[in-house]
Structures are given as C-alpha cells and as structure tokens.
Amino acid sequence: MSFQSIKRTALGAALLLIAGSFAFACQSTSSTDASNSDAAEKVYVAPGEHDEFYAFMSGGYSGQLGIYGLPSGRHLKTVPVFSQFGENGYGYSEDTRPLLQTSFGFVPWGDAHHPKVSQTDGVPDGRWLFINENNTPRIARVDLTTFETTEVLEIPNSAGNHASAFVTPNSEYVSAATRFSIPMDEENLQNQDVSIDSYKENFNGTISFIRADKPGEMEVSFQILVPGYDYDLSHAGKGPSDGWSFFTSYNSEEANTMLEKNASRNDKDFIAAVNWRKAEEYANNGECRMVPGEHAHNHVNHDTGLAESEMRDEVCVLNPADNPGMVYFLPTPKSPHGVDVDPTGQYIIAGGKLSTIIPVFAFDKMIDAIERESFAKDIDGIPVLNYNELLHGEVENPGLGPLHTEFDGKGYAYTTAFISSEIVKWDIEKTEVVDRIDTYYSPGHLMIPGGDSQEPFGQYLVALNKITKDRYLPTGPELWHSAQLIDISGDKMKLLLDFPTSGEPHYAQAIPADMIKDKQRKIYDIKTENGNPYKVLNEDETGIERRGNEVHVYMSAIRSHFVPDNIEGIKLGDEVYFHVTNLEQDWDIPHGFAVQGANTAEVLVMPGQTRTLKWTPTKTGVFPFYCTDFCSALHQEMQGYVRVSPE
Ligand code: CUK
Ligand code: CUA
C-alpha cells in the first residue's frame, strides 16, 4: 500500500497510530504547490539583508532553543537552555553550571518542547521567552536582549512538564502540569514507593501556575491537585476568557500500561478549564495548604552575572474539592493533544489524536453552563460539563490525527493533521474546511508568527514536521526534522520552502525582527556592566592567587594574547579556576579559552565579560591553553602554557 493511497482513510489512520509505525512508501516529491520562481522570490533574503522575523524553535531532545530567520529559514543561533553546550561552555563553566541544578542534583540534559514569548495585553512583547523541560520538570527564561538563559525553575510534585510554558496575556503566569501522574501521599504529596498497578487509588496529577513577570523571581505561586490523568498541553484564555487556562488530558481510564492506554476505551477525555484568577484569590487568601515540595530555583544574578542555585522546599496546594469554582472538566473527544484559544478569546479548540472531528467550544457557553450549574457529574470535586452545551460546532473532515491549531487573525484556523500529513485551514465561525495543503511529513505543531496571540502577524505558517524521509540529502539513519514555510497571505496556502531544524522542534514562536533587533546587547561595558567579582579591568590587575588547594588565575584576553600566559606553581590535587576577562569593547569579538585535558569544555567569553573555567589537572607536565575563536590575524598565536608539578 502506498503512502498516498492510505492517506485519507480512517482505517489507515487507526492502523498507523496503533502500530505506531509509518508505512510510508516515499517517493521523491519534486512538485511544490507554488511555482518555484515565485516561491524563491518570496523566501530570498539577499546577502547582507536581514530576515523579517525571528523564529524561536524548541530543540526537543537537544534541550536547546534554535533561532531561525524567516522567511529564509537560516539557522542563526542555538541558545543552550537545558543541556550542556560545549560550544560556549554553558552548563560546564562555573558561572553557568548552577542553572542545571535540580532537586535530583546536577542534570546535564533536558527535553525542551514549547517556547513562548512573553506577552503584554495578549500580544508578544519580545522581553523574554519561556520554555519548558519535559523530563525533569522545569521552566526556563531566556532574555531576548542577550539570547541567554537567565533563569530555571524546577516544578515540584510533578513528573514531566509538558503543558508548559504557555503564558497568560500579561505574562502574569506561565502554566505547567504533570505529564505523568505519580503516586502521591495524601498528606504531603510526596512520591510513594507503591505498586504501579495501584494507579487508580494512588496516582494524582498537579497543575501549576508559575509567577513569571519578574525576572530572577520565578516561583510556583500555587498548584492544583487533579485526578491521575496525563496532562498534555495548555493554552491561556485571552480577551473575554482572560483569567482562564485550558489543559488537555488523556488517559482518563487511569490505565497504568501502554497497551491499555492505547486502547483509549473512553470516548471522551477532558480539557481542564482552570479559573486561575479564582485560584489566585484562594492562594492570596491563604486558603491553600503548604506542602513539602523540594525544587531548585536557579538564576543569573543580575549584578554579578554569575548563576546561583537555591533549593526551595514548600509549595501552596489547592484542592478542587475544598476550593470550588476553580476547575471544570470539558469532555473532549478521543485523547486530545493540543488545545488552542482563538485570537478573539471566544473559541477553545482541541486536537483529538484519534478524533474524526475537531470540537470548537464557545467560552460564553461554558460560562453559561457553569452559572446554571449544568453538570453531568463530578470527579474528585471537579464538575464535568455537558459536551453538547459547550459546543460552538464540530469541524468535519479535518484530516486524520488533528494535533495543533494556530490562527491568522482573519477568522481562520489552521490545524495540523499528523497522520494524513496535511494542514487544514478552516473557518472558525462556520466550522468549515476551506483549504488544505500536504506537508512532508507528519506535522506536529505548526506556527504562525503571533498566531497564538490576540493579534497574529500572519503571512507565514511554518509546519514543524516529525518525519523527513526524502526531503533532503540523506545523512545516515538520522535526518534533521523538516520545517516547511507556507504562504498564508492568500486564499490558498502555498508551499514556499523546506529547511532542516536541529533536534526536534515541537513548538515555535516568531516575532517581527524590528521588535527586538535594536535592543540586542553588543558588549558588556567592562566598568559598569560587568559586576563579576573575578574580573580584571586591565592587564595590571591580572595575577595568580593560591587559597589552600584552590588556585585562582585572574586572566585577561585581548587580541591577541592572554595575561598571564605562563602559569607555574600548580600541583596535582589543585583545583585551578581560570577567570578569563575579555577586555575587548568591540561587538562580536569573543575570545575562547581551552586547556588540554579539561573535562569542563571551554569558555567563550563575550566582549567585556568574565567567565570561569574550572580545571582539575590529572597529569603532571606542561599543558597548552589557547583561544578557540578566530579573533584576529594573530589568533593562532593566542596561546600559553600551564605547568603542573607533583603534589
Ligand atoms: S508536543 Cu510535540 S507535536 Cu510536546 Cu507540543 Cu504536540
Ligand atoms: Cu582570541 Cu582567538
């Protein structure tokens, strides 16, 4: 059976999904939907010209954030977030290592899924970007003036954190929720050593709201205890629905093995609608229970530029059974994945992985049903609303395996169909499909610049495909995922460009370049903007200081030498700290520092910045160090020696 022939058959869908395999018979597809020259003109960014949009793509299992230009698809930078990054020493250097501390100790890797640009009045504002970690549950903040990770908060009482990092319209909160329910003891919510098949009795989940609008001060403001389902994605309300957030869940069967979960017996799972303003009110009135919940808060100290890690040990927990009016369940067909709120804030749209329709809920109908107390039943204190009373409409024939939806701000929604490999455009008011375009292959998320906000910037859509197959030159068994740029400015969608992406971009964001490009930091003024306690202002301040078995080398780097560059007096058993200050005050002149045999990577030091590399020598002798970044005609000469003597 060829891929095309099974493309839009429900049987094929079920088989593919259940077997978990992709029976593609890929032929090279040379056709595009636009004429090639037309497409080329639309994506061509001439040498020396800048792209129109910054796109921020999660790196999935790379743990990082990828920065791309649109429409060119050029990869501009990788920003390390949850994984160590040898390229610049992130997570290795003394000044950045604390960012990767957790209650489990130092964790050098993460799985980054959903980047989200901070918002003001429901519109991306370009101050920060938040992104979640799906394995050891965390949320990070990236500063969009330096493109550096400046803060990481661990989420306690949670296993996985997938429904994150979605922001409320004024970035008051970032959402989080447990991807995997876990057994929690009733008193303290601590993870229990119990039999896994006691899932139904013992397992629970939490939904968390993280205060996010003050840099360096992220905190879990409150957690809401929820039944033991798997919480998948979320989206904040806006406009009329501002004050609410929506979370999809699956496994309402509370099965504890995948075979049972895959059977997905229940016709409907739930969207949890959370009135976070109500929850906030409960929390502010002290109507929550403080429970233990060890979690790390790590941030870069604004004054010193050094990362610091502190352990927090408590969290405020609300229980829907004790705190009514805070959570409602919206029955939602067949294992919902994405949930998205349209730009008007009126419609809530779910993507049911196994559903043959897309349900569109109306926010005002939901409020009306809540006011009438029209509830079908109650689960652990959470009222379940009636599906038909919430419905604005159902989109028929939306493609197989609908996952995620974005908006153009002109009344249309665009939904990815994973199994039938297409994007389906539909009219929100009429809930009718108006256009569809094939993607290559199996799109997960899609992204329209600003397309999740109250004012989409429109024009382009990027399909973030899971399977690449034959789209690029083959590179062994692994191919980078394929992103596809689609023109949505007209009635018909037009494919413009394929480009490869690093890791697995689950979700992405894009903002007009003009919003932030003139705010980019170019240097650190060494006198006023470098508060690092180990800095040197000039070569006269450099030197070597011994403190017990610690040796501190206060070193300068400027084209094209290090001072000091001959270091002696080090003994085996010493811990050597190279504090390297880059004395340059010129944009884009970093110096690198690496020493033979160091297991802490290198440091790449920006102009005016100080970075610290720790080196614990393991052999005696004389070892070279050198600058790793080609910084001048005499870059190759930028080197020195360190001598290590026996104890
Ligand atoms: S998930 Cu990857 S396709 Cu982590 Cu948002 Cu849906
Ligand atoms: Cu400094 Cu190369």
Average of pLDDT: 93
The largest pleated sheet is described as: 10 strands, mixed
According to CATH, what is the topology of the domain at 105-334? Answer: Methylamine Dehydrogenase, Chain H
Q: Helix segment count?
A: 8
Number of strands: 44
**Oligomer description:** single chain
| Helix/strand structural class | mainly beta
The gross shape turns out to be globular
Give the distance, in angstroms, between the N- and C-terminal Cα atoms.
Answer: 71 Å
Poorly predicted runs:
1-34
Strand residues, percent: 35-45%
CATH architecture assignment of the domain at 105-334: 7 Propeller
Report Rg.
Answer: 26 Å
Going by CATH, the homologous superfamily of the domain at 105-334 would be: YVTN repeat-like/Quinoprotein amine dehydrogenase
Helicity level, as a percent range?
under 10%
Bound molecules: [4Cu:2S] cluster, dinuclear copper ion
Subcellular location: Cell envelope
Keywords: Copper, Metal-binding, Signal
Signal peptide: 1-25
InterPro entries: Cupredoxin (IPR008972), N2O_reductase_N (IPR011045), N2OR_C (IPR034205), Nitrous_oxide_Rdtase_Sec-dep (IPR026468), Nos_propeller (IPR041114), NosZ/Cyto_c_oxidase_sub2 (IPR051403), WD40/YVTN_repeat-like_dom_sf (IPR015943)
What does this structure look like?
Helix content is 8%, strand content 43%. It is mostly beta strands. Among the domains are: 105-334, YVTN repeat-like/Quinoprotein amine dehydrogenase (Methylamine Dehydrogenase, Chain H), CATH 2.130.10; 539-645, Cupredoxins -  blue copper proteins (Immunoglobulin-like, Sandwich). Strands 6, 7, 8, 9, 10, 11, 12, 13, 17 and 18 form a ten-stranded mixed sheet that branches. The longest helix has 10 residues, at 10-19. The radius of gyration is 26 Å and the shape is globular.
